[in-house]
């Protein structure tokens, strides 16, 4: 099915022209806090801007979840990995600079290809957008729904989908805090995260 068929009720309403993508209808709010927006960005945003905010939050959450796993796994296999002759060592924030020449270009190319694919799926082509409305998401695109579901985990029921979206958002939010904490800790003392548990 299409992204709209599986999207939460708020998004389906927008495709039919009703007031749709509003902060009150977005999944991701849990008691006791509810919808957390202390600076009031959501109440000042129109529907298109709110969709971009949610796209950014989902994307940053996914990157942060991968970063947290990368910190922990990268430091856990240090010295025992078959990659790069097990030469990469130290805190995870220094690992990228230790990658042999040429590999960094391959990594950047892979990331660029993934981002280009995401942009083609969700974003309006800049040539088709007005100069005063840059960075628009497609009307039928739900933020974060790039169609990648190789294990078929995406529920068809809208309520179950809202629950899954909320879980992903909450895990992404936690990962953003954890990744920021990992970065700060390693920058302060130059020790790997796992080293803190062994000393």
TrEMBL record:
Domain of life: Eukaryota
Keyword Transcription regulation belongs to the record: no
Gene Ontology cellular-component terms listed: chloroplast; light-harvesting complex; membrane
Chief location bin: plastid
Keywords tagged on the record: Chlorophyll, Chloroplast, Chromophore, Light-harvesting polypeptide, Photosynthesis, Plastid
Binding site for chlorophyll b 4: 168
Sequence positions that bind chlorophyll b 2: 185
Binding site for chlorophyll a: 57, 60, 167, 171, 173
Family note: Belongs to the fucoxanthin chlorophyll protein family.
GO molecular function term, any single one: chlorophyll binding
A Pfam family this chain is assigned to: Chloroa_b-bind
Keyword Oxidoreductase attributed: no
GO biological process, one term: nonphotochemical quenching
Chain segments annotated as transmembrane: none
Subcellular locations according to the entry: Plastid, Chloroplast
Function statement: The light-harvesting complex (LHC) functions as a light receptor, it captures and delivers excitation energy to photosystems with which it is closely associated. Energy is transferred from the carotenoid and chlorophyll C (or B) to chlorophyll A and the photosynthetic reaction centers where it is used to synthesize ATP and reducing power.
Name this protein carries in UniProt: Fucoxanthin chlorophyll a/c binding protein
Residues the record lists as binding chlorophyll b 1: 62
């Amino acid at each position: 099915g299409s992204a709209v068929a599986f999207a939460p009720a708020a998004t389906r309403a927008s495709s039919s022209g009703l007031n749709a993508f509003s902060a009150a209808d977005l999944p991701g709010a849990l008691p006791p806090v509810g919808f957390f927006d202390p600076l009031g960005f959501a109440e000042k945003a129109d529907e298109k801007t709110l969709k971009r905010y949610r796209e950014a939050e989902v994307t940053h959450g996914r990157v942060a979840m991968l970063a947290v796993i990368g910190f922990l796994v990268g430091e856990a296999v240090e010295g025992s990995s078959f990659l790069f002759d097990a030469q990469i060592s130290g805190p995870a924030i220094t690992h990228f600079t230790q990658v042999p020449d040429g590999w960094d270009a391959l990594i950047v190319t892979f990331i660029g290809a993934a981002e280009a694919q995401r942009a083609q799926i969700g974003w309006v082509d800049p040539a088709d957008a007005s100069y005063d409305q840059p960075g628009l998401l497609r009307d039928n695109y739900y933020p974060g729904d790039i169609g990648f579901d190789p294990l078929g985990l995406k529920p068809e029921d809208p309520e179950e989908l809202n629950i899954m979206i909320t879980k992903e958002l909450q895990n992404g939010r936690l990962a953003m805090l954890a990744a920021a904490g990992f970065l700060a800790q390693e920058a302060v003392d130059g020790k790997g995260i796992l080293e803190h548990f062994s000393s």
